[in-house]
Each structure stands twice: as structure tokens, then as C-alpha cells.
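Hey, resending since the last one bounced:
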Amino acid sequence: MTMKDIKVKFNYDTSDFEQKAKEAAKEIREDTLETVKYCAKVFANAAAKYTPPSIGKSSIEKKYYERPYLVLIRLLRGGYGKYKATEEDREQFNNGMVYKVLDTRKGRSTTFAYCKTKGQLKQLRRIANRGLSRVMWGKNLEDINVNVPAVITRLIGKSQNLERLDFNENKLINDGDAVGVEIENKVANVERYARFAEKKGYDKVRSALAVRLRIIAEKQKNL
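The C-alpha cells again:
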């Protein structure tokens, strides 16, 4: 007795599965893009919040909007602990100057300036671009359809200068397998004092990304 070959043939229609797979891939792509955009806002919010001054706070304290100053007569009399009068201070006082404003670095070879009147003092003390480095972590996020964090919009609302100045570029990457966002803060020398802010931004993104990716994975379980 001889055994004949047994041939088994069956067909399985995979069109429904393939269609669902295509829809799932499209949905994952869209969800991933939205996650990246969400993380861009998370990064900008944290980086702005941890950029000096008032590190870690959502708003800049009022005291940081004005430069410190000294009254020359008091300075000459030794009334300011750590500040000691210089020969130039004496000369400026003899020339009729009343106040010495500190930290006036911009456009000057020295870090201070002298003035006579309270009006001049007020003008010299005012820091017109306070918050510039914070704002430029995400001022133009709307260019990539991302809402600008409140920590940034509040600062812009307080200053016409911040409304006018533009040192932020953002790029949305959605090409082939690559999905991402590039955020560039182009304020001069920002890298010198905002490394910690950048790190905090990445830390917040890592946490947010983990949560969002778990949500995406849960949605695809029933494929």
C-alpha cells in the first residue's frame, strides 16, 4: 500500500488587515507629528521658565526690570558696604552728577553711567529688553502651528521691544521616516547663561514624550 501525496491549499483574504494597517500607519504618523509639536511647546515653556533672571519662575520679578543705582554723595561718604568710591566717582560728582547707574553694559566700554536728574535716572535704570532671551525660545512657534506658551506671551505683552524683535526660528521636520522640530534661540551669547534652561527643556520633553508614546501604543493594540 502506497501513500499518495496530500496537498493542502487555503487562501486568506488579507485586504481588510492591510487596509487597517495602512490606516493605523497614517494615524500613528499623525499622532507622532502632533506629539512632536506638543513637545515643542513643552520645551519652549520650560526653557523660557529656567532662563535668567527669576530662574524657575513663570514670570520675571519686578526688581529685575531696573538696574541698580548709587547716590554719589552717599557713595563718597562710604555709605554702601561693598561699593567703594573711585577717583572717577569723585570727578563726576564735582561735575554735578548725582547718580551712578550700574550694569549699563550695552554699547559702553564701562559697566556704569552717571546722570544728574531723576528723569535721566529712570531712563537709564529701565531695562527695555528684559525677558528677551526667554521670549526667543518660542516667540514664533505659531509658524509651525504650535501655540506659544503663556510664559512667553505674557512677556511680549509687556514690551513693545519684545514684540518687535525677532531672534527665534522654528522648523517642523516631516519627511520620510523623520519627524521632529528644530527650535533656535538666536539671542547673542544666550549659550553662556542658558545651558541649564536648555537642559530643563529636554528633561520636560523626555517626560512628556514617554507619556504621549504610551498613549499612541495603547490606541494601536487592537490592530
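The first strand starts at residue 69 and ends at 71.

Sorry for the duplicate.
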